[in-house]
Amino acid sequence: MLQQPFFLPPLFVPNSLNTPSIHLIFAEKDHMENPALMSLLRQTNGEKRSKAKTILRMFKLFPLLSSGCKMVALLGRPHKGLLTNKSTTTGTLFGYRRGKVCLTIQDDPKCIPAFVIELPIHTNTLHKEMATGLVRIALESETKTSKKKLLEEYVWAVYCNGHKAGYSIRRKQTSEDELHVMQLLRGVSMGAGVLPCPSEKESLMDGELTYIRGRFEKVVGSKDSEAFYMINPDGTSGPELSIFFVRGQ
């Protein structure tokens, strides 16, 4: 007996081969009779999987950014629903007016800093950037594979508002000047101003010792990416300061 040809009712004939149930019907009835159709179906499914993978990669925010410069260009304050492991921490930027800026990160103002680094950014330059109302500092470790925690990396490429400033090395130990600042700010949770210098000689050579301290929302995107967003006090408007850390992919 001759096999009756199989046809779909016109109502169910799709414009494109994207409906899973239609795929199943075609696969069961025509896979031996129409190899060209099966090839088209495999190609269509492959394109769908490729598009799905692309969309998934788009939502892995931080790993997409291969450099600090790209990170500053692409990242604002991401939608909170897409990120995990949020917490708050204390961040301080300080330095002599004619010197470079130091960055410290502490779990609490009374704790020894967990991260200390002198940035290749002059204090006067940072003040000018702060005056614009938007400062984004990005630090990128070029290490490809590492078992260290992200903030335990030593060498960092530093970017400020999209411009590469140079390289810095994280301090293994806090210096006396940095401990002096931490002690003076022990009871300060947020603020900005001028601090007494450890010695009059340093004040004459390098100018005033200034600082900016704030509470930061810490957001962990992955083991290779973290971001810190400064929290302005309720009801006040101030400069938007964000600090990003990323490890090379």
Automatic annotation (TrEMBL):
InterPro entries: MIZ1-like_pln. It comes from the Eukaryota. Pfam families: DUF617 (PF04759). GO terms for biological process: hydrotropism. NCBIfam families: A_thal_3588. PANTHER family: OS09G0463600 PROTEIN (PTHR31696:SF3), PROTEIN MIZU-KUSSEI 1 (PTHR31696). This is Protein MIZU-KUSSEI 1. It comes from Aquilegia coerulea (Rocky mountain columbine).
